[in-house]
C-alpha cells in the first residue's frame, strides 16, 4: 500500500516527479512520512482504529497484527501471525 501511495502522489503531480526509495537513510523524508500516513489509514481509518478492540487486544489477523507492530515500533510482536517475510 505504501508504494501505491507514492505512485498515486506522483500521478497527482502530472507524472513529473519520480520517487526512488533510499533504504540506507536513517530518517524518513517528508514523502516517506506522507506515504506512511496515507497507507496506515487506508485499511483502518483513524476513527475505526481508535475504537477497535483489536488495537488494545490483538486478534489473529495479519493486517491488524502488522498495524499493532507498527504502532508499538516492535516488529517482533505477533511473528507467528504476520510471518517472517
Protein traits:
single chain; 85 residues; mainly alpha
The total of beta strands comes to 0
Helix % is 55-70%
SSE string:
HHHHHH
Strand content: under 5%
Rg, rounded, reads: 15 Å
What distance separates the N and C termini? 16 Å
The oligomeric status of these chains comes to: single chain
- Unreliable spans are none
| H/I helix tally | 6
Please state the structural category. mainly alpha
Reported for the largest beta sheet, the result is: none
Q: Mean pLDDT, rounded to whole units? A: 76
Task: Summarize the structure in words.
This protein has 85 residues and is mainly alpha-helical. Helices cover 56% and strands 0% of the residues. It is built from six helices and no strands. The chain has helices spanning 2-12, 30-42, 46-50, 53-56, 62-72, 79-82. Helix 1 (2-12) crosses helix 2.
Summarize the structure.
With 85 residues, the protein is an all-alpha fold. It is 56% helix and 0% strand.
Helices and strands in order:
Layout: H1 2-12, H2 30-42, H3 46-50, H4 53-56, H5 62-72, H6 79-82
Amino acid at each position: 500500500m505504501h508504494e501505491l501511495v507514492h505512485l498515486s502522489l506522483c500521478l497527482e503531480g502530472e507524472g513529473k516527479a519520480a520517487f526512488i526509495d533510499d533504504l540506507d537513510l536513517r530518517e524518513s523524508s517528508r514523502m516517506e512520512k506522507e506515504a506512511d500516513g496515507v497507507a496506515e489509514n487506508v485499511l483502518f481509518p483513524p476513527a475505526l482504529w481508535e475504537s477497535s478492540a483489536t488495537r488494545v487486544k490483538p486478534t489473529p489477523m495479519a493486517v491488524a497484527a502488522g498495524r499493532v507492530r507498527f504502532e508499538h515500533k516492535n516488529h517482533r510482536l505477533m511473528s507467528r501471525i504476520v510471518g517472517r517475510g
